[in-house]
Amino acid sequence: MARASDEIEGLIALMARLPGLGPRSARRAVLHLIRKRGQLMAPLAQAMAHVAETVRECPRCGNIATRTLCDICEDPKRATGELCVVEDVADLWAMERGQAFKGRYHVLGGTLSALDAVGPEELRIPTLLQRLADESVREVILALNATVEGQTTAHYIAEEVERAGVAVTSLAQGVPIGGELDYLDDGTISAALRARKAF
Amino acid sequence: MARASDEIEGLIALMARLPGLGPRSARRAVLHLIRKRGQLMAPLAQAMAHVAETVRECPRCGNIATRTLCDICEDPKRATGELCVVEDVADLWAMERGQAFKGRYHVLGGTLSALDAVGPEELRIPTLLQRLADESVREVILALNATVEGQTTAHYIAEEVERAGVAVTSLAQGVPIGGELDYLDDGTISAALRARKAF
User: Fold this and answer.
1) What fold is seen in the domain B6-54?
2) Complex ipTM above 0.90?
3) Which of A34, A87, A93, B1 is the most exposed place for a label (fewest CB within 10 A)?
4) CATH number assigned to the domain with residue range A6-53, chosen from the 4 options 1.10.8, 2.60.40, 1.10.10, 3.40.50
């Protein structure tokens, strides 16, 4: 391997642990950082140190927060009585990109899994049920991944929420926008057919 | 766009300026960093700040250094009288990966370009000629890119070095190891044919 000084090799090794970067692209990224050490590397190091120090979990919803509550929980405009349940923060961000949901979130932190001994207590399910009353939630929208684990978790939560007398819905399944039938899996096509609607 | 808090959005924006990361993968990388803020994010911020502060150009060869001279210039075993001229540090690292060259380097910092008004003074060519005498160099090996600019620069340097009475060589051109003729460009094939050797 190429040998820069130990400090730089150490930095490359750390960068290579980021998703989407390998040893080679980490090397290229570090070289770019070194070339722009004034405009980019120093500010990036500072921003990273600051976030590493201040970032925490929102105690209410599990989103990432830098103050006591996260930005969404603190925004009074988002107290719509609708609660969207997602597996993790990446899913919350994906929902926010859509800009279609104006309510608040609840981040589970994973899915139920008998194999990995993840029960409701390991996820943020008890606090979800607590929030139903605390925030006078009218509707819980399940936005879990369309995987076996996601759907198992969705069924469990749906039962619990219905028992509390709150409406439960979930994201529609069907043909994605711009999707070509020829490239879709059979499961999606049959789900879309079952959920067909008047044109 | 998804909105995390301003600090996190700022960090994502900085990360997205790294080569190989776009806005989306930067977001994913930052999320990964936040999840591993103890083991990865804090050490990475620290390593980055340290390198940003200590890294400089080796005054002798132009390589990246964290002490006065770079590791290669400081290594007495590499004073072999052979000097390898490269365009930039990435090329030096590429040469080092090959582990075939045991001498020292000279990083030009670019190529001659009439259009961009880059003359020999803007590159590290005067210091190269100075080193020929200072370090009793016997051979200069040109490892410039096989582009028009690289080769123009190579010709210029070759003339100057020969005038100083030092031997000049350059990397061989030909079929890359593992290369398939069918996928090679015509220029490479004719260069390989002209430089053919006894089997």
Assistant:
1) Helicase, Ruva Protein; domain 3 (1.10.8)
2) no
3) B1
4) 1.10.8
